[in-house]
């Protein structure tokens, strides 16, 4: 490979490293976002998500450092650094493929587990003593996704929350976070509960399970595109690192 071509490959790897850096920062940010929004995410997912958040934070920092190794290796034509960079990229790529396959194979089970957890929160834990995190989290979920209950608003009618409040004067009730315009005690509006048209105009009509699922589905194409782009960058980075390692061997 002539000097001009070699320099071009090195500079190309520099560019890809900046993208890998961005990947690390994005992963770090996602982990932090999940951890900061633990009250919301905890309503639909188990504690493994919080472990995943810490793993994502650590992985983001790790990928950032790996990109730094690749940058230094390319800049100094250091075969050892480039070898480490290439090896780590291969491992990360394999883990990404494995994760995608696992998610695809277990998609239904993951969805059912999330639905079962949400049902437990609504029917048993919401509004109960020492369940403030769950109560606040589900209120935030309903407000954020503009939804009510798990499948429908009537999920609340048989919940422990409403059975513990016999003083409701109008019978059926929903939390105020179900209201399209949230005001104090809007969830026990007698007129709304007695008239279907007014009810649908007053409360969110879609269940939170479907609302969350719709949100994920609507953004799935973008997520696949971004992940596919990252995977492509990794493959090109591996190819460039391999070429530079081969060039370093020639010069020895």
Automatic annotation (TrEMBL):
<dbReference type="InterPro" id="IPR000301">
    <property type="entry name" value="Tetraspanin_animals"/>
</dbReference>
<feature type="transmembrane region" description="Helical">
    <location>
        <begin position="84"/>
        <end position="105"/>
    </location>
</feature>
<dbReference type="InterPro" id="IPR008952">
    <property type="entry name" value="Tetraspanin_EC2_sf"/>
</dbReference>
<comment type="similarity">
    <text>Belongs to the tetraspanin (TM4SF) family.</text>
</comment>
<keyword id="KW-1133">Transmembrane helix</keyword>
<dbReference type="InterPro" id="IPR018499">
    <property type="entry name" value="Tetraspanin/Peripherin"/>
</dbReference>
<keyword id="KW-0812">Transmembrane</keyword>
<feature type="transmembrane region" description="Helical">
    <location>
        <begin position="48"/>
        <end position="72"/>
    </location>
</feature>
<dbReference type="GO" id="GO:0005886">
    <property type="term" value="C:plasma membrane"/>
</dbReference>
<protein>
    <recommendedName>
        <fullName>Tetraspanin</fullName>
    </recommendedName>
</protein>
<keyword id="KW-0472">Membrane</keyword>
<dbReference type="Pfam" id="PF00335">
    <property type="entry name" value="Tetraspanin"/>
</dbReference>
<feature type="transmembrane region" description="Helical">
    <location>
        <begin position="12"/>
        <end position="36"/>
    </location>
</feature>
<feature type="transmembrane region" description="Helical">
    <location>
        <begin position="220"/>
        <end position="246"/>
    </location>
</feature>
